[in-house]
Amino acid sequence: MLKRFRSLSLIIVLGSLTLASTADAGLSSTLTAEVGGLRNRNGQLCFSVFSTSQGFPTNGANAVQKKCVKITTSPMKVAFKQLSPGRYAIAVLHDENNDKQANRNFLGLPTEGFGFSRNPTIVAGPPKFTESAVSVAGQNITTQIQLKYLLGQ
Q: Which residues form the signal peptide (predicted)?
């Protein structure tokens, strides 16, 4: 009787774990960034994905996912997998010289291309998280990002 109880308990526990992992798998999504407007294929694209306004868009330490990828085509598609439901904003840098920094000129203006999800208007400084955030809720989403080059295309 005790042996039967243990077997039944083990089946219940394993069944619960299977259901929990299946439920979690259904909640994760993929957010794909399709980046256009590249002025050349030099260097790499560096992405930071943020789930809150904290650190957006310049402090990658606050990003939930980060990656740099070599530019192979234009437009470039880059996927960010296993995101929980929520709002996410993507910041991308065309790192033409592969130094993983946003290079600036003597006036402080960016010399490399940059962009954000939802392509907000850039006036005098970076956009707010709310201007760039897209909703991700259990489905796969693609957002298009058009790079901007302040010092010519």
A: 1-25
